[in-house]
Specification:
By secondary structure, the protein is of the alpha/beta class. It has 3 domains: 3-46 and 86-143 and 269-334, 3-Layer(bba) Sandwich (FAD/NAD(P)-binding domain); 151-266, FAD/NAD(P)-binding domain (3-Layer(bba) Sandwich); 347-453, FAD/NAD-linked reductase, C-terminal dimerisation domain (Enolase-like, domain 1), CATH 3.30.390.30. It contains 14 helices and 21 strands. It is globular. It starts with a strand and ends with a helix. 44% of the residues are buried.
């Protein structure tokens, strides 16, 4: 006999946790099913463990930059096995803590894969059937298929974060967040790192001028970035792997790189294939994404909603997953009246130094026909950079000429992963450039530079 619920949540990441706890707190009967350890990508296999490794690399970089400026630490280095062990002190307890929280909220938790068998029902591995008034898909994302011979030899970003030892020669296929961040970690451990990116520059979601400034740091630590180059195949050899690629210009010259490890860093897509969506009449578009309305509800099955990376309505960021889940719960409890609001969501790539962005790019602002002014400068001579002996520090800020509203901010350099949040606050809540300039920030801090950026 099937068990009945008000809501079944498939997945156990950020969106799943927020939605299930809020629905349970509202007195609804809720079940959660995930075939992977409870906690989701961010806490277990993504943002949080990655940032812990970035911290180690940051310390090494701080020592290197300050050597000869009052700091002497010639033996400073990252011990990979030890930093992975430190990372596990965080990730290891997460699944048990999550399960305990589910139990405290009266949520039934199932450690198994769930797939649709009807518009309002799922079947678990083992044959148990669960039915619900509504079902939330929050299954996250998975690496996108690459389509070249030998792609099975590539490890995922998740496997990279579990390596017991870091090989000497690493190739990252792709040029987004994963490639940029992992390359900065690996190079500071001592690995020889190559990035192969088919586009014109890495980090394509960030301002190209600022990425250009950041490239100084890639060159400085010996990362070989091959842009406009497409991987055609990976071969296993007696010495490791041979990555065969071809330049997209210069007559299509062949490129070969030897590696001990090849990492998939070429993007992620919603993890939906195992759900048997056809059984629930849940439609997908030509890209394979769920067809959703503005309330994050399936257009073909009103019982089904989605949130986070599985929904792919907003940027693929952890705060978006939480925001989506809150919108879904409000719609389930109040009826479809709440649309997600993706204004002013900052995005950061945790390179060293980091690069950050929020709001519109120059191109997007022009396409919207806006009249705006741009303040942009590379400022390694500013105190924020000089006190850290950091040579890369710059900004580009867009302000609407008619309203004085900040419409976009793009930063690279020390502390910008925190400062970008203030620009996000301004964009989301309609603060003007004058509002920011007349705010008295603590000095000397990264935020105290904002007035000069405007």
């Amino acid at each position: 006999m099937a068990k009945s619920y008000d809501l079944i949540v498939i997945g156990s990441g950020t969106a799943a946790m927020v939605a299930s706890h809020r629905m349970a707190s509202a007195g609804r009967k809720v079940a959660v099913a995930d075939y992977r350890p409870f906690g989701g990508t961010c806490a277990l296999r993504g943002c949080d463990p990655k940032k812990m490794l970035v911290t180690g690399a940051q310390v090494i970089d701080d020592v290197r930059r300050m050597t000869g400026r009052g700091v002497a630490a010639d033996d400073a280095r990252i011990v990979w096995r030890d930093i992975i062990a430190f990372k596990r002190t965080f990730t290891g307890p997460v699944p048990e803590k999550q399960e305990k929280r589910y139990a405290e909220h009266g949520i039934d938790a199932y450690h198994t894969q769930a797939r649709f068998v009807a518009p309002n029902a799922v079947e678990l591995d083992g044959g148990d059937r669960l039915e619900a008034q509504h079902i939330l898909i929050s299954t996250g994302a998975r690496p996108a298929p690459l389509g070249f011979p030998g792609e099975e030899f590539l490890i995922t970003n998740e496997k990279f974060l579990e390596l017991e030892e870091l090989p000497e020669r690493i190739v990252l296929v792709g040029g987004g967040y994963i490639a940029a961040e992992f390359s900065h970690i690996a190079a500071r451990v001592g690995a020889k790192v190559t990035i192969i990116q088919r586009g014109g520059h890495i980090l394509p979601h960030f301002d190209a001028d600022l990425v250009g400034w950041l490239m100084e740091k890639f060159r400085e630590i010996g990362i070989d970035v091959r842009t406009r180059t497409s991987v055609e195949g990976v071969e296993k050899t007696d010495r490791g792997f041979l990555v065969r690629a071809r330049a997209n210009a210069d007559g299509g010259q062949p490129v070969t790189v030897e590696a001990d490890l090849v990492v998939h860093a070429a993007g992620r897509i919603p993890d939906l294939d195992f759900l048997d969506l056809q059984a629930a009449d849940v439609e997908r578009d030509q890209r394979g994404h769920l067809k959703l309305n503005e309330f994050l509800q399936s257009v073909s099955n009103r019982a089904v909603y989605a949130a986070g990376d599985a929904a792919r309505m907003g940027p693929p960021l952890t705060p978006v997953s939480s925001h989506d889940a809150k919108a879904v719960v409000r719609n389930l409890l109040d009826g479809n009246r709440h649309r997600p609001d993706y204004r002013g969501i900052p995005s950061v790539a945790f390179t060293i130094p980091p690069i950050a962005s929020v709001g519109l790019s120059e191109q997007e602002a022009r396409e919207k026909g806006l009249k705006f002014c741009v303040q942009s400068q590379l400022v390694p001579n500013w105190y924020t950079a000089r006190r850290l002996a950091e040579t890369v520090y710059g900004f580009k800020v867009l302000v609407d000429e008619e309203t004085d509203l900040v419409i976009g901010a793009h930063l690279v350099g020390p502390h910008v992963d925190e400062v970008i949040n203030l620009f996000g606050l301004a964009i989301r809540h309609g603060l003007t450039a004058e509002d920011l300039k007349t705010t008295m920030f603590a000095y000397p801090t990264g935020a105290s530079d904002i007035g000069y950026m405007l």
